[in-house]
Amino acid sequence: MRRATILLLTLAAIASAQTPVETARTYRQAHEVEILQQFAELLRIPNVARDTVNIQRNADYVAAEFAKRGVKTQLLSSYGAPPLVFGELNVPGATRTLGIYAHYDGQPVDPSQWLQSPWEPTLWTARHDEGGHAIEFPEPGEKVDPEWRLYARSAGDDKAPIVALLAALDAFNQKGIKPTANLKFLFDGEEEAGSPHLGAYLTTHRDKFADVDVWLFCDGPVHQSRKPQLLFGARGDAHMDVTIYGANRPLHSGHYGNWAPVPAMELAQLLASMKDQNGKVIIEEFYDSVAPLGDEERAALAKMPNYEDELKTELGLAWTEGQGETLPERLLLPALTVRGLSSGHTGALATNIIPNTATAALDVRLVKGNDPEKMLDLVERHIRQRGFHVVPEDPDEETRQQHPKIAKVTRSRGYPAARTEMSLPIAKDIAAAMTEAAGEEVLLVPTMGGSLPLYLFTDLLGKPVLLLPIANHDNNQHAENESLRLANLWYGVDAFAAVMAME
Amino acid sequence: MRRATILLLTLAAIASAQTPVETARTYRQAHEVEILQQFAELLRIPNVARDTVNIQRNADYVAAEFAKRGVKTQLLSSYGAPPLVFGELNVPGATRTLGIYAHYDGQPVDPSQWLQSPWEPTLWTARHDEGGHAIEFPEPGEKVDPEWRLYARSAGDDKAPIVALLAALDAFNQKGIKPTANLKFLFDGEEEAGSPHLGAYLTTHRDKFADVDVWLFCDGPVHQSRKPQLLFGARGDAHMDVTIYGANRPLHSGHYGNWAPVPAMELAQLLASMKDQNGKVIIEEFYDSVAPLGDEERAALAKMPNYEDELKTELGLAWTEGQGETLPERLLLPALTVRGLSSGHTGALATNIIPNTATAALDVRLVKGNDPEKMLDLVERHIRQRGFHVVPEDPDEETRQQHPKIAKVTRSRGYPAARTEMSLPIAKDIAAAMTEAAGEEVLLVPTMGGSLPLYLFTDLLGKPVLLLPIANHDNNQHAENESLRLANLWYGVDAFAAVMAME
């Protein structure tokens, strides 16, 4: 009895000596199966922004789960837009307010490319292309391997932070930990569609956000080395589809080949004129509006780990664009990517025709200083300079008869990049909290390569924004077979707990 | 009573004065609805070469219909190959033998692109994109407008000649007309797949064809001006698919854009390096093996109608490749056509990824003098010259690590062009018969732009080959919504009757 009593007293002393981060971690470790179950429950609700019925189901689910944990929630609605889930948790005596943003919608899917339905979360022992195999979900109390992967659309982008926040709140509630800041949650339902209504929502409800000191964006991946990172900005994004026209109908490639224009060839020649062999965009003025880097940003870049060789090996690449420059450096420049090409068919469906159109889907990533419309204007001007008559829709016969080369250019809504000053004082506290949670120093990075509508917060609301991503970089974000590595979910729970409880 | 008797006698006198062509035309005019019904019956049998069950149904149907008309038919079979329908009709006293070739298979279809099922023949008052509308099939005795169109896969390419031959034989049988030559029919079941077994069939059964004086190939379209034409050759054809590789998985276009290779851009640069802005192929030695034209061919070219402006207007083109040269001239050179492009998605399915492969399907049309494999060797050498490591299948990780640029090149079986001397004596008789049938002078053309396995007949069997096409040029051959203009079917019946009965 005596020895048992001493042991209990010792354990109690250890427990009371735990920091909030340690207490939350202990709670999380004991409830990993339950957290996974909740994650799967959320992932089972399809979440493509156009699917209005299921988008509403996602919003309802998220709001209800936060409400259960004491957060005052509200669905902000606007005609024709997915609801924005808003939540607030006020802490008596708190001296600051953290805004926390994530999104519950996901990229469109092509189910034929997936191993299983994108909406049927499946647990794998490792990536399917790295020796993993599918396994049953564990029962409560069973051991969970942190290298396991959960496969589903939005497992990485961007439902993981939502579930990690719920788990951190559970830990706080169960263990009696109080956040040290007031919290305002915002969960977007159309981030993958470019958040077209978020600006209007923020304007309408700006009073709700007036007291936020800093917004934390919980999206995107950690560093490729699996090190945690805190980022100070994100690139902007703009899209353009370009369609080149040949004859007014598909032609037999024998009877007309060598005489009729070949749209796929003209498109190839046009695209080839946009970029040199080293990946430099050769569209006039493409780099002219890029904002120069400051000293802190240069210093942060210099501190980034040299991870080029490992990354090239992992991705199976013997060459990258912009030889001699690293990935973090390249992300500080605008990018022009061909994200899709189509004309006729390839493979078994190919037929002997000259397809009468060819289309390229272009993605232009923007950095600080780039205006989305102006950047697309440069691309369109380049298309004109190459001799194309640019039209906004399929050309009529009169237009066809008048112009040797015709390109249809359609744009979709884009938004600019945003960057927060790296000297922001609260950023140092957040970095310290994340470092404690991760057990290793967090990387400070000037910008994420991906895009988020940060400009609405920095420019419209006038608040600084920091990015706190938790997903593994190899999560196949935006592609088929998206998968979250469970260790990253656990890091997310710990990191959110640390930030919510930081001094 | 008296006047009626005189009228009948007069009609009988007119009938007896009719040439065989006129008699056959009269019969055809009285049976257009029945001919159409038979056409639709044949078109309802799907005929993609890979669809072995339906290919057999086509062969059985064709053989049975010719047998009904007194042709001794036989299905030539070979393991794994569609049957070749062989038929012979021997005429006592005939001094020559005509070989007649057509094919009953059709190009693959993408049903989503069709107005109706490709296998449900539908009658239209005109082209669907030129004000036509679908109508019911007429009842026997009802009037048939020669401008009507029959929509279905293979309506133009190449079931129309089969049905026209059956109708011509009906006319001969019903009106007691005897062919003036022995006839040997050959109907191919995999022409659209490149006739991979036809050579073996002809070798095995060459005794059956030993007495053929000239082969008539009934395939392809008449001139764009709707004038009838007799052609003395066809281009050859060879295919190559080229796939360019990026990372070993699709990457997020934000997190990696401007650093990761973009396969679609590298493919565009490669394709652009193959052809100049005027449509000239700039692959080294591409034109070196082209056989020079003879005097008769030059003279025939000079006699071709100048139809460039009408054709450009019809096709909605303000520019064509090889400015200053006409279509018939351009068809006497090899052609390089991009018949398909694919990488990721365009339009609504496009996502923000860098697709990890991009593929182009290339079609190389060949002229006399070009060896198919050697021409593809030139293209492949060009790809290597552009810095690509060429592989025959998807690269493994080791290959990826070693080579900055990787292209998978796959070839499919091709065959060479063939041309018959334009001075061939029997060609003059055939041209005269066709001119009588059409009521206007037939054009003599050195080569068709499309491809047919003529080389097997010219090179393997050592026989001259002439092409007698009947389809309208605007039949959407090989593409969706293929349609035959009925006037062209009637011309086919009349032309075959004229040739079978020529002195």
Word description of this protein:
The structure is a homodimer of 503-residue chains. Chain A is 33% helix and 22% strand. Chain A is built from 15 helices and 21 strands. In chain A, the strands form five sheets. In chain A, strands 10, 12, 14, 15, 16, 17 and 19 form a seven-stranded mixed sheet that branches. In chain A, strand 15, helix 12 (397-402) and strand 16 (406-415) form a beta-alpha-beta unit. Chain A starts with a helix and ends with a helix. The first copy, chain A, folds into two domains: 16-232 and 420-500, Aminopeptidase (3-Layer(aba) Sandwich); 236-299 and 333-411, Alpha-Beta Plaits. Chain A is globular and about 80 Å long. Chain A is α/β, with parallel strands linked by helices. In chain A, helix 2 (20-30) runs antiparallel to helix 15, helix 3 packs antiparallel against helix 5 and helix 13 crosses helix 15. Chains A and B meet through strand 10, strand 11, helix 7, strand 12 and strand 13 of A and strand 10, strand 11, helix 7, strand 12 and strand 13 of B.
